[in-house]
Amino acid sequence: MDSVGVAAAAPDAGPGPAWQSKCPWGAPSTTSISCSLADVMSEQLAKELQLEEENAAFPEVVAAAEGPFITAENIDTSSDLMLAQMLQMEFDREYDAQLRREEKKINGDSKVSISFENYRKVHPYDSDSSEDEVDWQDTRHDPYRADKPTTTPRRGFIGKGKDITTKHDEVVCGRKNTARMENFAPEFQVGDGIGMDLKLSNQVFNALKQHAYSEERRSARLHEKKEHSTAEKAVDPKTRLLLYKMVNSGMLETITGCISTGKESVVFHAYGGNSATEDKVIPPECAIKVFKTTLNEFKNRDKYIKDDYRFKDRFSKLNPRKIIRMWAEKEMHNLTRMQNAGIPCPQVVILKKHVLVMSFIGQDQVPAPKLKDVTLSSDDMKKAYYQILNMMQQLYRECNLVHADLSEYNMLWHDGKVWLIDVSQSVEPTHPHGLEFLFRDCRNVSQFFQKGGVAEALNERELFNAVSGLNITADNEVDFQAEIEALEKMNEDHVQNHGKKLSTFSSDGDPPIYDE
Ligand code: ADP
Ligand code: MN
Hints:
With 516 residues, the chain is an alpha+beta fold. Helix content is 43%, strand content 10%. The chain contains 16 helices and twelve strands. It has a six-stranded antiparallel sheet, sandwiched between helices.
């Protein structure tokens, strides 16, 4: 396995003829799909196709016979830095254990005891100190770090009188352009002009920039072809270390492999350990969701979180790295609410930065099938429908949440019932678009079950009213949607005027209910 590949090479892996045979995720399978025009228009299909494309290079592995992804003994040790860090971590742990034994021996039953605390070695990666956080965010190679172009003051000039300098000033501009070369990919050779007082004209800079970007894309394409490419992108070294730490601490036994890789997250399967330090019982099998939202996708998704007042105060101050963590945090909070309401969903085990560990829905490394992939008897289909209706109501009323990405893609069929997953984007109903999200969820659910032959399935408008308890009477989609938006607007106006959200909606023409 190549130096940066995620998987540890099995010790006995001989030099195979092709990389496929060595890949711990198994050989990619090619699937062909046939679909209707309606399917072509579907966003989900687009996502699916993208996933399939990715899976061709980085296939999902279920019940893999190949070696595990991370175990305490077996981990990628080809990165010198990481190897050193891991060894140090292990050394520190042994040292501290020895220290504790000595401390115990010396103190015995004595009432006055000596503490060796100050002599303990806590490995930096083993503590959750704020220093760690700083280190995490400020690395030069942080892939999520936003470009920080030097800004010109808004008024467009600096200085006074005859010393006035505008943003178009040739010298200033030239220097800025030179400085901006730093933003090019590290592989891109710009010479050592950065250290000099070099002034690049806009024309030269732009040509250079264009070239740098196309070089970057070209090298990315070349890179793609190498065996480890997609795996490498799936988790960065810092994340790998975080995962290793979980195994090393005994919380997890083994991380066996990847079960899903999407645009926004990678999900791994792991066997739970029997960590003595955590007071929680670790489930025998766990799912590890690693959020890998990059700046681009974060922009697409920010409407979910930006307007979620629970996160509002924090949002503006955050860098992208922290926002990714907030997704993970959001998923954790939402899962906990659901768990408390008794909705079948993964149970949260632990959240570390952007990595969420939860119980695994499935068995023996095989994840439970998504509702879209399973063929249910008409009885089970009906049962599933009523269960979902019930869950949607519970979610709305007891958890005060709207799933906001509810469909047959995010419901698993396991143990004869439906389990809800993927709730990082879930919002409270009073979110500025909360009701629209709910309506979309209702449309997905309603269509799925109507197509699936459940005669009792309510249409999307009936379902919306049944879940929300609202009484929107419009008998067509357009008017219904308009009424929903009017309600949302009323809520927003209320926030403007009172600085508070309504706790519930009412559509009966009554004044909005607000209770403390
Ligand atoms: P995404 O945002 O990438 O859609 P999901 O939370 O939906 O993230 O997870 C992606 C896939 O990983 C799911 O469709 C499911 O197959 C699998 N998965 C996620 N969480 C679990 C879990 N707790 N147990 C089993 N499989 C899971
Ligand atoms: Mn999903």
